From TrEMBL:
<dbReference type="InterPro" id="IPR005248">
    <property type="entry name" value="NadD/NMNAT"/>
</dbReference>
<dbReference type="GO" id="GO:0000309">
    <property type="term" value="F:nicotinamide-nucleotide adenylyltransferase activity"/>
</dbReference>
<dbReference type="InterPro" id="IPR051182">
    <property type="entry name" value="Euk_NMN_adenylyltrnsfrase"/>
</dbReference>
<feature type="domain" description="Cytidyltransferase-like">
    <location>
        <begin position="134"/>
        <end position="332"/>
    </location>
</feature>
<keyword id="KW-0496">Mitochondrion</keyword>
<comment type="similarity">
    <text>Belongs to the eukaryotic NMN adenylyltransferase family.</text>
</comment>
<comment type="subunit">
    <text>Homotetramer.</text>
</comment>
<keyword id="KW-0662">Pyridine nucleotide biosynthesis</keyword>
<dbReference type="GO" id="GO:0004515">
    <property type="term" value="F:nicotinate-nucleotide adenylyltransferase activity"/>
</dbReference>
<comment type="function">
    <text>Catalyzes the formation of NAD(+) from nicotinamide mononucleotide (NMN) and ATP. Can also use the deamidated form; nicotinic acid mononucleotide (NaMN) as substrate with the same efficiency. Can use triazofurin monophosphate (TrMP) as substrate. Can also use GTP and ITP as nucleotide donors. Also catalyzes the reverse reaction, i.e. the pyrophosphorolytic cleavage of NAD(+). For the pyrophosphorolytic activity, can use NAD(+), NADH, NaAD, nicotinic acid adenine dinucleotide phosphate (NHD), nicotinamide guanine dinucleotide (NGD) as substrates.</text>
</comment>
<dbReference type="InterPro" id="IPR004821">
    <property type="entry name" value="Cyt_trans-like"/>
</dbReference>
<dbReference type="Pfam" id="PF01467">
    <property type="entry name" value="CTP_transf_like"/>
</dbReference>
<dbReference type="InterPro" id="IPR014729">
    <property type="entry name" value="Rossmann-like_a/b/a_fold"/>
</dbReference>
<keyword id="KW-0547">Nucleotide-binding</keyword>
<protein>
    <recommendedName>
        <fullName>Nicotinamide-nucleotide adenylyltransferase</fullName>
        <ecNumber>2.7.7.1</ecNumber>
        <ecNumber>2.7.7.18</ecNumber>
    </recommendedName>
</protein>
<dbReference type="GO" id="GO:0009435">
    <property type="term" value="P:NAD+ biosynthetic process"/>
</dbReference>
<keyword id="KW-0520">NAD</keyword>
Length: 377
């Protein structure tokens, strides 16, 4: 084990030097994650999970503009070390912890299946298609635009004949390397506060609790599997999540909700592992909420891409009241001591002020009596 740790530190230093010389890799989330993981943070133990996958992992929000590969031999050395280290690294050991187990909230799920038209006792209505919506992201902090995106996605899926049982915000974990990322515990709390007023949006804290970066596909699979187990319990006569709903409750499909920026990354084969993207599109599907529908539609019309191949699994939703609200702009306003009220849900803003997040300790009194009082409590 001692040899492995020394070897990890040595390889981490070598890879760090190599990556700095190649901005295309250093600028990508996959490259940054691998470098961070191998270097091991302060412990030198984060060497297991991210280097096990081939080359570049799924979707990098801060992805390279160029698709140039890393220098020959760099990743081969990483994978070679992994093959030796795996025999001494306990399963799931990443930054000293195993996969965290967090229950999936179901309190807002609601089945809208019609009472008539069922195929028979214990069977769903003919043509009934239940789904749940899942938005993955930093939520750093959550804004009204995130909630607006979920509302538009629900309207669009309902108009297409789907029954939207509920929705989830899934904040990324602290292992998702991004400058200025607030601790996961705060981002989960802010997301929960933001979603409190919604009649269908909940927060899945599972991804945020993981000690490693979690792929979008894995989160979708987790939600779908958890709900599948919950719904099958109900069918067996147990205390299912929709026990009080009339009619049958078949297991829903988890559908990804995202913005046009994420859809654009899916069009670049260098940013997503194609086998994982193929599974995401074919097994789950995407609802893309965008201010520029023409650009998003053109991505589906490009021959030879997975988006084109699975165009029928991607719904493009045009935002009828476009805004430029973003988490990054909200953070900048907070850092400057300016008001962000009505850009962030009040309950989430209260959490920001109460904990001094994003440099928000000193706020003007015009934010409101309640917020101002909590800030200086």
């Amino acid at each position: 084990m001692l040899w492995s740790l020394r070897r990890a530190c040595s390889l981490g230093r070598h890879l760090s030097s190599t990556l700095r010389q190649h901005s295309v890799l250093a600028g990508s989330h996959a490259g940054s994650s691998a470098l961070w993981a191998i270097a091991g943070g302060t412990t030198g133990l984060g060497l297991a999970m991210t280097v096990n996958s081939v080359a570049f992992a799924e979707a990098a929000p801060q992805a390279p503009a160029s698709g140039a590969p890393p220098p020959p031999g760099a990743w081969e050395q990483v994978q070679g070390f992994w093959s030796k280290a795996v025999s001494v690294a306990p399963s799931g050991w990443w930054r000293g912890g195993a996969t965290a187990q967090v229950p999936l909230p179901t309190d807002k799920l609601q089945c809208h299946a019609p009472a008539r038209g069922a195929a028979g006792p214990g069977k769903p209505p003919v043509g009934y298609r239940p789904v749940v919506l899942v938005a993955c992201g930093s939520f750093n902090p959550p804004t009204i635009a995130h909630l607006r995106m979920m509302e538009l996605a629900r309207d669009a899926m309902t108009a297409q004949g789907y029954d939207v049982l509920g929705g989830y915000l899934s904040p990324v974990s602290d292992a998702y390397w991004k400058e200025g990322l607030a601790p996961a515990a705060h981002r989960v709390a802010m997301a929960q506060a933001a979603a409190a007023s919604s009649d269908f949006v909940m927060v899945d804290a599972w991804e945020a609790a993981q000690p490693h970066y979690t792929r979008t596909l894995v989160e979708l699979q987790r939600v779908q599997a958890e709900l599948g187990r919950a719904f099958s319990t109900e069918e067996r006569g147990g205390a299912g999540v929709l026990a009080s709903s009339a009619g049958p409750a078949p297991s829903p499909r988890a559908v990804l909700v995202c913005g046009a920026d994420v859809l654009e990354t899916m069009a670049d084969p260098s940013l997503w592992r194609q086998d994982l993207l193929d599974a995401l599109l074919s097994q789950h599907g995407v609802v893309c909420v965008t201010r520029g529908g023409a650009r998003a539609l053109s991505l589906l019309e490009t021959p030879g891409t997975l988006l084109h191949q699975h165009a029928g699994r991607v719904s493009i939703v045009q935002e009828p009241v476009p805004t430029d609200i973003s988490s990054s702009l909200v953070r900048k306003e907070l850092e400057q001591g300016r008001s962000v009220r009505y850009l962030v849900p009040d309950d989430a803003l209260t959490h920001i002020y109460s904990h001094g997040l994003y440099g928000s300790l000193q706020q003007p009194a015009r934010e409101g009596t309640q917020l101002h009082a909590q800030q200086h409590a």
